[in-house]
Amino acid sequence: MSSEPIIGIDLGTTNSCVAIVENGVPKVIPNRGGYRTTPSMVAIAENGRRLIGHIAKRQAIINAENTVYAAKRLIGRRFDSKEVQEAIENCTYKIVEGPHNDVRIELRGKIYSLPEISSMILSEMKLIAEQSLGREVAKAVITVPAYFNDGQRQATRDAGRIAGLDVVRIINEPTAAALAYGYGKSLERRVAVFDLGGGTFDISILEINNGVFEVIATSGDTLLGGEDFDYRIIEWLVFGFAKEQNIDLRKDRMAFQRLKDAAERGKCELSSAPQTELNLPFIISTGKNDALHLQRTLTRETFDDLVIDLCERCIQICERTLASAGISKKDIDDVILVGGQTRTPKVQEMVKSFFGITPSKSVNPDEVVALGASIQGASLMDEKTDVLLLDVTPHNLGIMIVGGYFQTIIEKNTTVPTSAAHIFTTVRDKQTSVRIMVFQGDSLRAEENELLGEFILSGLREAPRGEVEVEVTFEISADGIVSVSAKDLETGVGQSITVTATSGLTEEEISRMAAEASDYAVGVKTTDAFEGARAEVEAVIRDIDAILPKVRGIIAGSEFGEDALKKVDTAVTRARQAIESRSVDALKASKEPLERTLKMLKGVATKLGGP
Length: 611
Ligand SMILES: Nc1ncnc2c1ncn2[C@@H]1O[C@H](COP(=O)(O)OP(=O)(O)OP(=O)(O)O)[C@@H](O)[C@H]1O
Ligand SMILES: [Mg+2]
Prior knowledge:
CATH architecture of the largest domain: 2-Layer Sandwich
Distance between the termini: 38 Å
CATH superfamily of the largest domain: ATPase, nucleotide binding domain
Bound molecules: adenosine-5'-triphosphate, magnesium ion
Strand content: 25-35%
Number of domains: 4
CATH topology of the largest domain: Nucleotidyltransferase, domain 5
CATH class of the largest domain: Alpha Beta
């Protein structure tokens, strides 16, 4: 593989996964521990070190307030939104308000933006790929829930930039899944991708036609996923405990983190077992020298009751999506289940009964999104790859008009990239400026939708009302990101307008954070480079140690023997010193003589020692 590598990253709420296409075959890149997905968790340890992935998850219980999970549920949202205010209630880490009404997280006294937190996970995925490929990786395709709005997409792209990645494209998770499902096959099918992950739900209907993947409709809920299923179990445990002991376990961060852990484990167990034991000894101390224990049995039946409304919400969204696309259920040839939460039997049962078909088992729900992202990456880099992706925008895009109403300019489910022009006129005599507020959403009332930003067209000619015409063009890129430009129709002069983002980071902040992250990345890489070189050198030493006794026996007494053994000694000593000096260069320099020595020993063993 000589061309520049491009990776696909599924940046999940719970787990992230990285993949690459090699020789035409998409494959997942396992992390250093051999796991094919990495927990999307970030923590700051007591000594200030950043911990990411499994290592962050393992210490979450004892460091609950400095461990971030499910950051994707907060990214690109406004601090004062209902969703964020609710999250603050049920979170073990501290959520604070940022300078742009954005959300920030405080860990050990330092404030981090959400793109920064996500960038740490992305950096880790980049590093996993670099270590496996043995070369630097700069380009990536990152996936987002199809239902993500402009703010959430921009924030994800910013996270990529902070991580030092060139984000070549942002693609929708269900679309990526369909791409991996249909890649390399001559299929002509209409499929529904039902993606219920850790934090989000998406449903997309696609037509696959021999390499052309066309999304017809998409919808979802960016706050509906495995986390909510877990929370139902937590509530059930908490209320049960409160009834018996009159203590609210949620008030204790460590107890809450343990409950969360146990709830998720129990939930997963219920996917294969009819019941599960939730056992949490010493869950809380009463302060009177006695600790209280929590022990309960949860049956699948009770669990199904606890989460039935969540399952129903998914099905209702499916129903609405089909209706908006004008498709009947029987027109769907295949249903693809994506996301770990689709392993819950109740979810599968409801999907099956709604669509009237057994969902396809041909894809791995944890890996298919990253694989699809890598396929899209490969096809963007290499025009020979036979894939064409036509995606849609998930929300209506429009502006606020008189009376606070929302006027749609680009309708949802329009294929992207797309643009639409709209002509604005003045409403008062001698009016020299117009204020335009851009929203995304489905409500007829503008304020019930997501405010993307606002801008002022100024310097208009003084004229009677209605005479001045300004054409404003709204564009949505293939990434689903919105931009706006304006032109004075009379003079043809372009108006320079800046949409002031209502959340997210400024250019300067992104550059500063990227610089900080790259400082840190160098630190990580040096150690990793050292560890990598050390592992290689130690492996050669082990081989030498293994073969040496045999060779000693063969060449004992001969002059050649003494000379050879001295060489072995020198090479090994030099390598051991290099390990102690912790110098990557010294280690690298010591490897070649070691390998030569090993080769020589092997030669002696086979030539003189017989078979
Ligand atoms: N065997 C199982 N039974 C039930 N749920 C499971 C099982 N295995 C994993 N899950 C749940 O799946 C969720 C994680 O799924 P996944 O890794 O697909 O999500 P994600 O990609 O991180 O999130 P999202 O796509 O929403 O951003 C978690 O809530 C996890 O508890
Ligand atoms: Mg996912």
